[in-house]
Amino acid sequence: MTHILGASDTDQAALLFIYFLFAVIGIQGWVWLARLYTKHSVWCLSMIMACAVFLTVPFLSAGDIVAFGVICALTGLTLGSDLALPPAIQADCADWDRFRFRKERTGTLFAYWSMSTKLALGLAVGFAFPVLSWFGLDDQTQAASNLSKMALVVIYALIPIVLKLLAILLMRSFPIGPKQHLAIDRRLESRA
Fold this sequence. Notes:
Structural class: mainly alpha
Low-confidence stretches: none
Order of helices and strands: HHHHHH
Strand content: under 5%
Number of helices: 6
Distance between the termini: 55 Å
Number of strands: 0
Oligomer: single chain
CATH topology: Growth Hormone, Chain: A
CATH superfamily: MFS general substrate transporter like domains
Helix content: over 70%
């Protein structure tokens, strides 16, 4: 927002508000869609949407605040899916784990999930800031070169596209859908 758009502090605050507002709004829509289809396919759809939106980022230039506002709204919607659906999928996996191994390990599985997401965020920051610094972009008041702006766009938009496409490939044939989860649930109830 600072180095490419030249956004003011007020604009930056408004854009972040739009992003998180649409994430909250989006949660209900993604949960509703996940009831109609499978959770993993809806999550994949949201990641495809995010990839399509991120593809527009390299075309932004100074002053494109409204265009970036649209990007914030659309990626915020997809964030709603990222916040709601993976934990729901994990809960289904925890039920399968309980059925398969006859042990209650839900807390441990959620702890691993929480640890891995925090580790991923830490690694992202640990990667992004040194790389941007290496490209000469380490101070907000410093003028950004074209090369450092390109590095910023790659880290902000293009690397997430690659990671989301990999996640889609991993999730496309996820084996637990509504029917499978219902069968697992019934078997767990019959054991109780």
